[in-house]
Task: structure prediction
Amino acid sequence: MVKILVVDDDPDISLATKLVLESAGYTVIEAHSGQSGLEKVKLENPDLIVLDVMMESPTAGFHTALALRSPDPASEYAPYRHIPIITLTAIHQTTPIRFGPDESYLPVDAFVDKPIEPAQFLKTVQELLAKESHP
Amino acid sequence: MTITAVQPKIASLLPIDLVVYNQRLIGTRLAAGILVVMGTWVSAQIAGYTLPQTALYALGAWVLLYDAAVFLLTRSQDEDHPDLPGLRRLILVQIGLDALSLLIFIHLTGGIYSPGLIFLGLHVIMVTILLSGIAPYLYAVGMSGALLTLGLLEASGALPHFSITPQNGSTFEQTEHIVIQSLFAAVGMGATALISASIVTPLRTRERHLQALYETNLAAFASLEIGEVLSGLAESAVKSLGARAVTVHLLELDGETLTRAAGAGEESAGLGNCRRSECPFFDRALKGTSLVLSAVEALQVGGGRLGRALIVPILGQRPLGVVSIFDPAPTSEEAPYSLLLATALAAQGAKAIEHSLAHHALHEADRQRTQFAHVLTHELRAPVTGAQSLLRLLLGNFVGTLTADQQDILKRTSRRIDSLLILINDLLSLSAARARDFQQPLEHLNILPALIASVERVQGILHEKRQTVHKDYPFETFIVSAHEQGLGRIFDNLIGNAVKYTPIGGTITVKLEADYARAEVRITVSDTGIGIPPEAIARLGEEFYRAPNAKESGIVGTGLGITTVNQMIAHFKGRLEVESEVGVGTTFRVILPLVKVQPPAVNGSVEAGYDMFSLIQLRG
Result:
């Protein structure tokens, strides 16, 4: 059974994400801040993480991603470094900073714009899970 | 010796004065040389004087010769940037040569009985104008001595005496006459110097004061940085008033704390930060009175050593601060003007301080506004994206199936929310543009990739609306000073608008070209759309303004796009031109300064292209 962690402080976005993922048969675990997201990663070892950016701080999601992908071998998140991350953000389309998954300084695998377009979102999730299981 | 002593005086002349005086010397000497030649001819041929004609003609020629040399030397100088030390030396050499020439002239025209003695007075006036201070008196003494020596040498027969009229030949033998004549010349020249100086010195002082005011004015308006403005004020006060030190204290908004904001001259002079209640002199000045402090009183405001001090308030719409001037030049004739000048300087300082404060207040207000818009738009987006995400769940039948009517209503709702999101996004990008794009450094980059990327981004809609896009790109590479994000923002908006306001099947033209004569790049975006009414064109730059026909068309828009485009282009030192006809179409032209052109590659080889043409540098 595939487990997906959704980290978002907006309950409506959380609900929308959760319902879409559950409709496709995934198990969804929720966290409502970057910090609790990190704790849930260690607790649940999910197969994929959906991460909001602006939470307790305007860049909380980025910090969560950076902690999870830390290149330091002694990092407490080293065992979870491989988990694919989808960043849920509005920044991608509204600011001139075009950071994509190809840019090394933000270590995430995909961006999904808000509001969530269910079909496209599910497609991204399925692609990432497929890549992870058949690298 | 005299020359080295007077050099500082001539050094204090204004550059423009030096040039003017030099030209005047050349002109006067030309007249003198011609007069010597003509006068000799007339006196000898018509009046029948017995003159050493050959020697006088030679003297006239000599004067004209070195005048011509000086003229040529001066002309070879760059007019806007004269070599000032060189010019100063040249003037001093001219004074020496003129004095020598005059002595020879006097010798040739009767020695101490020469009618040319009167010219000594003219020379003294000239020297007084050029070299103030003690120099004219030294000159008078020197010339009288030379005259006396000349007379004695002639009397002793060591030098020939030329008697030009029969009358003065008879009285020549008496030595007392020589001495008396020389004394008269000395007194006459001394008196001339004294009277000339009494006119020239105050004029020169006034001139220096004007220059100081002018410099303060320049300093005051050259910068909006308050520190630079105040330093400029302090320095010009030191220079113009000949003061030992000048300090500027600013009164903080609490009306009590005085902060030492600038100083010039001796650093240890003046008070540091202080409180108004602890310094009665500053307090009195801040109430609007300029004070002249005695040496003892000056110690209380940090005079450091005995000397007068002037305390002048800087008065704007409120008391802004005080200027303290320590040991202003004690020259008696300057005293009445010192306080007036200090007050005038302070008044200019007040203007500059108020400009600077207003500028900073505006800047801060704009920053806060941008910050506010940024936070606000993020706060606005959150509930709207939340609501839209939930609506899509319903529309996507993730939570049960909807009836056709329910679907229709939710689709309409969703569309309205989309419009709202576009509005918020535009608002966000405008504030983001202000916050980020204007702080990002400009770089030299090829303009074409940004243009191609923007056209690429509308491919989907172009296809949907079955519109044709004509692309006219050059072979050359145009380099402009900009940044990629800003160019993207400009082209996205203009091309996006063209697509948006052009009906199905219309045509969009995107053209990039250069105007080499003006060193400009032009990017033209034309469409066959609804057009912009003439009265609306003038208002396109206004935030949230939309042309009436754009509103009526029902096309979603915010009236922020062109505002952003305009500001971005202005940031890149370019301009935007618009031509439009309602119902026919619109042409937007972005004009940016062209930094550099790289020629196209020849035979597919980039290296060959560079070799053949090399880079054409248009602007630094």
Notes: Chain B has 20 helices and 14 strands.
